[in-house]
Amino acid sequence: MEFMDSETQAPDDLPHLETNYNNPPALAPECKSFKWKIEVIDVDGNIEGKMMTSKDVWKMQNHQVIVHFDEDTGQPIGDSGGLLGSWLGQLSNDVHLLPINYTDWRLVSPHIKTRAWEVIQSKFRFDDPMMRKEYVMGALGSRCKDVKQRVWNDYKKSNLNETLQNRPDKIPEDQWSHLVHMRFTEKWKKMQERNTKNQKNNIMPHLCGRKSFSRKRDEIKTKIGKTPCRAEFFIETRKKQDGSFVCDEAKIRAEALTTLLSQNPQVTNNITASLDDEYSQVFGPERPGRVRCVGRGPTPSRLVKHSSAPRRQETENSELVVQLKAQVKALGDQVNGMSKFFQQILGTSTREQASAWAINFAAAFANIPNPPFVNIPNPPNPQEKDNGASG
């Protein structure tokens, strides 16, 4: 894959870019007036609940929106996640910060991405920035791809020269020229045909709209009181309000999933996905790169690491409990046997003395590190017993 110099080198004007982003980019669509219920934190650490639009975020100074994440999938949830996604969509329209003359977002200059990450962090607070950076920057890359596609659909013409002449006023000439020349290559045309063909295979569209899977899953969790598995999520997001499904195929798959869920109700306990769950039994195994019905971020390899660790720990704990119970039972049997044995030998000793002797003896020979030896009580003084009786 070929890249321009701007994709591997720092832009000349990068240090001179505007440091305070107080308004949406000129190319961005009009900000919607929808208000999100979120929390903001100031430079002194004071937290305050607010109702804010995405346009309010641009005007915000010395404050950051606190973004909440789902710990299971590492995806933003709630109104803060919705506000972050909406604002990233506007930021992606800043062609001076994020030029459109690149061929693959993954190989865009790290200098550009670093600057974009700094701008994002000036407006949003993350609990663990390094952990959340991969998801946030991936979401930004997806929004940038949408911007390129929207501009292309609005301004493309039937041939290369006409499209070059039809440049949008708000896009620099060098960026437009690179985009146009790239999209009129045979390589791009073949890729577009392949993508169009693959898109036709999506015959069971979800009904989430612009809402992310993580936010929708969090809403379902609040509704039913537990994290929905992939099978439950599929059924919920393919069913209309009147109870019908988006298509006959979705209905057939939902019925198969419902049958499996009824046969194994105990497995759907706060587990988002696993490689052998009901969804995979109906739709087949996962392909590399992503996990279906989960959303951006989780991959099959990460899913295995995430799900196997708790199971492995649970197995180890169960085995340890069994071993300890067996040792306790064996030690108890030894104590009872030794207690009777020592009581017969000592004869005149008390039952308490015999038990203490038995416990110490069993502990010494039961391979127990640092055994809790018991103090053996002194035998009663026969003379004191006689004096007490005569008195």
Describe the structure.
By secondary structure, the protein is mainly α. The chain folds into 3 domains: 5-199, no CATH class; 213-297, no CATH class; 305-386, no CATH class. The chain has 14 helices and 6 strands. It has a 4-stranded mixed β-sheet. Strand 4 (69-70) and strand 5 (75-76) form a beta hairpin. Helix 9 (230-238) runs antiparallel to helix 10 (248-263). The relative contact order is 0.07. Residues 1-18, 305-318 and 384-391 have low confidence and may be disordered.
Q: What's the total number of strands?
A: 6
| DSSP strand content | 5-15%
- Output the strand order for the largest sheet: 2-1-3-6
Shape: extended
Number of domains: 3
Helix amount: 40-55%
Layout: helices, strands, pairs:
Layout: E1 36-42, E2 47-52, H1 54-59, E3 63-66, E4 69-70, E5 75-76, H2 78-91, H3 110-123, E6 124-125, H4 129-155, H5 160-165, H6 173-183, H7 186-199, H8 213-224, H9 230-238, H10 248-263, H11 278-283, H12 300-346, H13 351-364, H14 382-390
Helix pairs in contact: 2-4, 9-10, 12-13
Concise account of the structure shown:
By secondary structure, the protein is mainly alpha-helical.
Considering the chains and any ligands shown, give keywords for the structure:
391 residues, mainly alpha, 3 domains, four-stranded mixed beta sheet, two-stranded antiparallel ribbon, 14 helices, 6% strand, disordered N terminus, disordered C terminus
